[in-house]
């Protein structure tokens, strides 16, 4: 009987708790800071601030006499405080509550969720952990999701290491490591190390992807690779674990004996060199992290001021031993290009210092990545960058000219001008394009501007070559002054091939270092018997061996098909010659989409689909030609428009003006201000207009056209003196025929620049009320 009463009493208490908490939760759930401010969950801080200012003025009790104004103003202020605080906003987004929205606050006097239906007082049960509502708010800003890890953390791990904790809601051991974790994270964050927290209960997929099968677990990610922490969780071990994640040989120890060898290696490595002077015997972790972040740009060295072997270095550079000092050296190994000294050297200061000294004064272009950073593609008119490129050689005979070019680059203070050089032997495809029709022997100086990512450039060679004399310097400076005033002096255009990677020979060394790191990981895993974490690596090794063995077997027993491939290529080449001309001869190593240009004839059959009913936003670029000029103009047309074939909105066609001259005249009536046919007044009535070489950009949907008129820029062979003799007439006729062919070929010389303006949308447009019908035009005989 007593037991029954006790059970009834406990059930009554439980019911009262449930009813009280339901009422509290309902009152809490009514408050939604997003609804109060009227913003979405993805609203930025600027949007929230703007809305708050407007609502605060509207509902301020001194201005609004509404009885609910005071309560509304409090809600608005409270909502603004929650949404402008990252921790409170994150906890509200994840759990629907914050410190302020919780019914009885935080701590041991509050109520926490138990599953999703019951609530208990933690002061009675003393549970410091629970599910959603009890998750540590400090970890919420580090929470990782699968997509975030793949798209953000892995790419960023090539610049800085990440320390990730694997936890769960009902993890007893996680409680013991929490104080140490918080203290370590607080210190590592100031060094720039990424922090992440994965809750197994909500991100099981990510935990499995990382290979974490127990909680708590701590792991590190660097260069996309995962390494597990196997030691006792203390701050010293965690700091050492992060330091061990970094690759070896990031920082070289420098003394009086090897300092010249270290500094003079700038020419071989093509990098600036940085020296850090400090009194501690080991390299500071902050400096190692900086070396890892900028390993592709700068070579780092460390000088221990406490050693007697570094005394000469300290005297040579007058180093203050009471504060860490950082020197950056470029081409001059005797004088530092920049210096920084501070007792509390912070990460932001070091990053800014290194970022301002990432490149040499005149670096050698050794790969495409460096070319893209030194000579970026033009984006806006005010962000133009001109690259002054010296094409030279490695021999001793070029040393004088190279030193003169470097001295000119050292004196440059204009950020618009970038100086660089290449070795012709190592970058032969690039030099062949820039030195065509010129004296191909280095040294030569070329001024260029990159126009697009497909390799299009405008350039101008400096006449007379480069020997480093005062006359050469004066001539180059004059050209640069003219360039600042008139960018149109870059009157040559070309498509550059992708640069050769001169450091590919170092691949074997990098592979050996990588193999060493993998072997170290395998030995470490064997020592800790972590077979489950080793399975991906073992699977990769056996898969590679299987593929290698299978490849050898297939090559041994398969018939050779190398003899058939040349025949197939010959057949395809013959078909190409018989069909429409393409740009197989175009010297571009990076074709946009195809290795040919597809050009269709504009006839009464294709007229409707290629023009009248062309899709919105699409443009048909039409070349006007005749039967006699068809082959010459189509070949030149294909070469000029080849770099634009990657665009999905451009189509290419040609129109035979011998058949459709009346259609041309009807269309060009709407572009009369652009029509200036070069004919004499007395010949206007007797001779028809010559439309050969005209190019029309037709937008069928918006009914407008852009017009390109041919401009002859080639040599005039008729102006050359003729030789006297019996064969003068035949030679004269041959010269005229060659002159006519050459003039037709050069009609499209400026088409590439016109296409650029077409893509930029800066060409004048001539609107056509209605497209004339092509089928109604009679054929001219």
UniProtKB/TrEMBL annotation:
Keywords: Autophagy, Glycoprotein, Membrane, Signal, Transmembrane, Transmembrane helix
Segments crossing the lipid bilayer: 537-558
GO aspect biological process, one term: autophagy
Basic and acidic residues bias spans: 564-575
Low complexity composition-biased segments: 580-590
Keyword DNA-binding: no
Topology of the protein relative to the lipid bilayer: Single-pass type IV membrane protein
Alphabetical list of PROSITE patterns matching this protein: DNAJ_1, DNAJ_2
InterPro entries (UniProt xref): DnaJ_C16_autophagy_reg, DnaJ_domain, DnaJ_domain_CS, DNAJC16_TRX, J_dom_sf, Thioredoxin-like_sf, Thioredoxin_domain
GO cellular component, as recorded: endoplasmic reticulum membrane
Gene3D superfamilies according to UniProt: DnaJ domain (1.10.287.110), Glutaredoxin (3.40.30.10)
PANTHER family: DNAJ HOMOLOG SUBFAMILY C MEMBER 16
Protein known as: DnaJ homolog subfamily C member 16
